[in-house]
Amino acid sequence: MGKYNFENDGNEFDKTIRIGDLNKEIIKHESEEKNDFEEDEDIKIYKKSTDKKENDLKEERKVSSSNRYKKERPHFSAGAKAWTVAAASILFVIIICISAIAVKNIFYIKEDKQNVIKNAENIFENNNSNEIYVVKAFKNNIVYLLGVENGKIYSAEVNDDTVITGVNGGKISFSLLSAGDIVTLTQNADKTAASRIMWAEDAWKKTDMTDVRVDVNSSSVSCGDEIYKFNSNTMFLSDGEEISPNDVSWADVVNLTGIKNNVLSISVTKPHGYIHFKNTDKINSPKVRIDFGDEYDVTKDELDVPQGKHTIVVTGTNIDDYMTEADIASGQVTDIDLGLSNEKTTKLNINVKPDGNYSIKINNEEYPSGTKSVDLSTGKYLIEISRKGFEDFSKEIEIEENKPEMDFEAVLTPKKETVPPQSGTHTPQISAPSTNEKTGTLTVYSSPGWAKVYIDGEYKGITPVMANLTYGDHYVKLTLDGYDSIGNHIDVNSPDQSYTGKFE
Predict the structure, then answer these.
(1) I need a surface site. Which of 197, 314, 351, 441 has the fewest CB within 10 A?
(2) Hey, where are the domains in the chain?
(3) How do residues 484-498 score in pLDDT, each as one tens digit?
């Protein structure tokens, strides 16, 4: 089976199509177009000649029927051979022409545009060719146009002699005309077809525009810093089909055409898709950024997003920035689960005085003894600290948003001990130095308790004892009946220190 090459948009032969495939398209096309248009005269003449040929061949078969079992080839006259070759050539040309028309028809018009065709007025009948038009649709070699001034639909025939120029003034093929293009026409000498279709002199075209916003209430279109007007004749298109102005989203990629401050067509070239946010209730004041651009409030579960691959960043006052990748398909919904984000925490630094082996619970949850810091999310917490020999400590705190770090201090109070009856009672004593030197508090404990405390040879009381001492070296001695005495040099170098003497 032979092949046929079609021109691409650059007028280059780059696509090879089998004739058989073209024939399939022709059959499909002829069935679809059967009720729309009458056969032209050339095809009728061709069919008549073909029918005559078939009748002649039938008569010839009757004459030679007695020899049909002979193994010799059928005999044709020179005239029949010539006619066969000519008919085959004509048939091939017609196939190619109709195929090209059929292919063009596939791309430029659909059946739901039949109303446009039926209501169209021949543009040359009333000498309307000098006006400005918007290209509305294509069918075969007919272009359908919308009159800018009156809103009427016109038709104009295009033939091989028609010269078509694009927005830059260069010559283009019929296939490169687009719905929404703004043109003027001139007719040929016999007023049967357009001799020239030209991009209108004062018309403009903006391609691949983003963040175009249509305001139906004010009949305006904002594109960057520019604001245009539109009216009831303005065409809104997507995939070659007319849509409502409300269907154009800021997330669409569009082409715009117009004259001066008026938009005559908006064509969506890349429709948007949607992101559906799940678990938005877990995020305080959620906001989203697409490809690190402008920030938007997440006011609804779905957000319009341009089709293609995007980086999505969601922020909230109670979460760390959540970033993910999403491949958005036109008209499709992509789910993003905000429940996967990490809750933002505050580092709470815990400072217990005097320091030691204390137990700590936060909102009734136990933490390891001596914990110095914890990470807490926003909210209120009850902190409870207990330590042998000290009164239990508890305090309620609140972790505020957007605070990476907080300090918490707990000052423990020694329990008031009662001296056994044989020893009497005692009150922990705090001795104060007699000088104005820098001082710190040394708390002395013993295990077991009730030991006598001597600091620098001076009796201070029975453990626990708190002594206010000057910075520097001090000798601490503890005695307890039944145990060997304990003595150690203590370097006092901080405001609060502790020392525990353990009897063996």
Answers:
(1) 351
(2) 3-64+76-108, 113-201, 204-270, 272-332, 345-411, 439-502
(3) 889 999 999 999 999
